[in-house]
Amino acid sequence: MLIASLKPRTMGGTTNTGLLAYALARAGHPVTCYDADESLQLAAWARDAGDFPCEVHVADTPAFAEVVYPEMDHDRINVVDAGHAENHPDIVDSILEVVDLVILTLSPTQPDYDRLTRPERGTPLAKVIKRSAALRESGKPPATYVLLNRCQAGAASPRKYADLLRNGGEKGTEPRWTVLSTQIPRREGIASAVGFPCDKPERKAPYDALVTELTKLGHLPEPRWRP
Ligand SMILES: Nc1ncnc2c1ncn2[C@@H]1O[C@H](COP(=O)(O)OP(=O)(O)OP(=O)(O)O)[C@@H](O)[C@H]1O
Ligand SMILES: [Mg+2]
Questions:
Q1: Which ligand is nearest to the CA of 152?
Q2: Residues 132-141: pLDDT tens digits?
Q3: How far, in Å, from the CA of 201 to the mean position of ligand 2?
Q4: Which residue's alpha carbon is nearest to atom 19 within ligand 1?
């Protein structure tokens, strides 16, 4: 299967992709990663960290569906880190053609909510995902979940933006999103995760919860083994 980590702009996407890969491996899944962001930070993380749990293939190409996807081992959980959808819509379009599950990282702030729902330039991501249906074998858009990141403990903002996303904005007229109940907290240990070993409890617990939730939702197979 293929999971894509998407975001409209810088939101913590690579952090979430990498720490999700560690958590999938901890749960006993065979994992492979693909770096489809030209900054190649996920590939560098795997090179530098020492304990990165899988291979990361460089895959920042608008021919992702034609060139990268057919070569994957589809029995593994393949995770692709996409760059900014705002700047690289061609790569994101190609990933959306073939992906099984989209995890959309979003920070619960007004500017980041606006960049998702009503960007000043470019096509809103909801529309990009919806129109991908035309090119998909199923004829339907991929299952898509919003993962709130950088959530301040005790703050009202995660709840506020989760409600706005679920309800289609203040007036209920905008696209509705499914928001995961797992939230990634704002933490220094997570802020500094990219490029370093996954050796802190705060780099593990929220992502183990994410794997558990995705499994309960039926999007991940039961792990083959548990460590
Ligand atoms: N849970 C978190 N708590 C605190 N800071 C975070 C968290 N997640 C990410 N960050 C910080 O947010 C910034 C962006 O993270 P990251 O590089 O993962 O995002 P990205 O969406 O991949 O960005 P890019 O646009 O460069 O691809 C980094 O400075 C990182 O330290
Ligand atoms: Mg990134």
A1: 1
A2: 999 999 999 9
A3: 22
A4: 12
Map out the domains of the chain as residue ranges.
Answer: 2-216
Query: Which segments of the chain does DSSP mark as H helices, in order?
Result: 13-26, 41-49, 89-98, 110-117, 125-131, 157-167, 188-191, 205-216
Averaged confidence pLDDT in the chain = 96
58-93 as b/e: b if 16+ CB within 10 A: ebbbbebbeebbeebeeeebbbbbbbbbbebbebbb
State yes or no: pLDDT of 214 exceeds 70.
yes
Other CB atoms within a 10 A radius of the CB of residue 171 amount to: 7
- Candidate of 15, 39, 149, 190 to mutate for ligand 1, largest count of ligand atoms within 8 Å of Cβ: 15
Which pLDDT score is estimated for 225? 59
Class of domain 2-216: alpha beta
Q: Say whether pLDDT at 104 is over 60.
A: yes
Give the residue, out of 6, 10, 151, with the most ligand 1 atoms within 8 A of its beta carbon, to mutate for a pocket test: 10
